[in-house]
Amino acid sequence: MNVQKNNGDSVIQGAIILTIAGLLIKILSAVYRVPYQNIVGDIGFYIYQQVYPFYGMSVILATSGFPVIISKVMLDHGYESSHKIRSKIMTVSLLYLLAVGLLLFLPLFGFSSEIAGYMGDSHLSLLIKVTAFSFLMIPFISIIRGYFQSEQNMNPTALSQVIEQGIRVTLILASSFLMLRMGFDLYEIGIGALSSSIIGSVVAFIFLIIYSQKKQTASKIEWNLTAPIKTMDILESLAKYSMTIGISSLLLIFIQLIDALNLYSLLIHNGMDETLAKQTKGIYDRGQPLIQLGTVVATSLALSLVPVLAQAKMKKNREFIKEQIELSLKLCIVIAGGAAIGLMSIMKPINIMLFTNSDGTNVLIVLSFSVLFTSLALTQFAILQGLGYTFFPVVSVLIGVGIKYIANQWLIPEFNVIGAAFSTVISYGIVVFLTYIYMLKKRYHFQSVKTLLKVTFALLIMFFSLSASLHIVEGYMSLENRLFASLVALVGVVIGGGIYGLAILKLHIFTDRELLNIPIINKAIKLK
To answer: What angle do CA 204, 106, 96 make, to 5 degrees?
Structure first.
């Protein structure tokens, strides 16, 4: 009994460690792009963002993708089996990941010129080749992280993620600043930034090797292919989880990739000058860190409730599952809705504060609404995966990406860059809608229409309060001054958050029981 309790505690502690590390690296990943844009300007930012989706794909697969997949395969086939069987699972997993890494590396490296040509900018070819090497790191980092996670030891995974991101961000900003001062062109600076990212991955791998040697992990794994378990069974599990967990975790990156592939080329085809098109795409890309940061904040609390769903399903406690889903989605709607509408209300001063000027404010206002849909989609995916429904999120992601591609082809020639912003919102919205329909079919969904009306009313109060205040301020002083815009933006965040939070409390959107089930609030009450 005590052993089970200790195992349960270690699982919960491990989940908390990974969640904290995940939040930290996601925040860093969003935040560093602001000073990077300030250093290299909109065209330099365009260059980096054109190639970033490829690198971002490798990072997600090596952090929240393959390590989770390996640990799940180990738990499915070998957690309580013999040492030899576990070693064979690790051996087959490594060979599988080596094959996947090569399959992703070779076309990206070999067809870099063709990909750059399709993007409309042949100068990106070398940057794509550099990025391709990040996929070669996936097998080696993932196999060690996956092994530790299968042993319920999340510390090396969490520490290696933080080290990787910390070194990456530091080197990107330092190299960009120095290279610009030394007279390198913006494409060369982009190569330096991407090389810095790969150096971060190499350092993370070295850390994992040293950690595993200290813990004598190497002696525990005897690489073999002779244990009494079918290789095809292991490969089938790896392939199944790669299709489900892997693809569904790449939603945001896939949407960014579609824009990287065709937004700039469509602007050129539409008659825009090359320099202006690069600058326009760079301005459009200002929305990515805002969406990412808003999504991280919105999903952090909601996703913290999800891990209990699998356990509740095993116990067939359907009522508890419904309560947790209701609370997860309610939290997500409240926080993501507040983040999206808050950003829309004061986007002009935020744009100036972060990116030096107000260029593209209308485009960023449209993109801000993506925060609500991306947060809902990721929360829905986590809920379905917690309940064991892992396949449909992949279907909705692929449909959403397909719609994004088609919508870009239609809306960009018609409405210019703001058409790309609308196509992004539409594609995320369709992913959420399709997933919600699926959850309805499984009889798991958000049930309270009354709550939605209350949240909408609270959002309207915040929106009109902030919009009116901003209008009054602009009547007396110009927001083009960055220091003044920063002050207005920060005060707006405090005032908007205060008004919205008060409205949420006064409208009794959360019951007392629900508040007690929210981890942070629950702990705060216990501390008192």
So the answer is: 60
Q: 501: which 2 tokens?
A: 């939070």
Q: Which two tokens stand for residue 304?
A: 């913290």
The sign one gets for the Cα dihedral 210, 216, 221, 223 is positive
State the pLDDT at residue 18. 59
Q: Pick the closest to residue 365 from 424, 312, 319 (CA basis).
A: 424
Cβ contact 196:171 at 8 Å: yes
DSSP conformation letters of 162-221: HHHHHHHHHHHHHHHHHHHHTT--HHHHHHHHHHHHHHHHHHHHHHHHHHHHHTTHHHH-
pTM to 2 decimal places: 0.90
CA distances from 455 to 143, 187, 338, 440 (A): 44, 46, 9, 21
Q: Kindly report the length of the chain.
A: 528
Distances (CA, A) of 483 to 283, 429, 495: 20, 36, 18
DSSP per residue, 21-65? HHHHHHHHHHHTHHHHHHHHHHHHHHHHHHHHHHHHHHHHIIIII
SS3 439: helix
- Count H helices, E strands: the chain? 26, 0
> Which of 413, 420, 123, 124 shows the shortest CA–CA distance to 272?
413
| List of residues 6+ apart from 266 with CB closer than 8 A | 408, 409, 412, 413
The token duo for 75 is 């738990």
**pLDDT score of 465 more than 50:** yes
pLDDT of residue 8: 46
Q: What six digits make up the tokens of 186?
A: 């913006």
Res. 167: pLDDT tops 90: yes
Q: Distance between CA 179 and CA 192 in Å, rounded?
A: 8
For the chain, give percent helix, strand, coil, nearest 5: 85, 0, 15
Rounded CA-CA distance 148/212 in Å is: 9
Mean pLDDT across the chain, nearest whole number? 86
Residues near 352 by Cβ (< 8 Å), separated by ≥ 6?
358, 479, 480, 482, 485, 486, 489
- Residue with the larger pLDDT of the pair 424 and 208: 424
pLDDT at residue 81, rounded to an integer: 63
Cα–Cα dist 421/287, whole Å = 9
Q: What is the pLDDT of residues 288-323, one digit of tens each?
A: 998 888 888 777 666 565 666 666 666 677 777 788
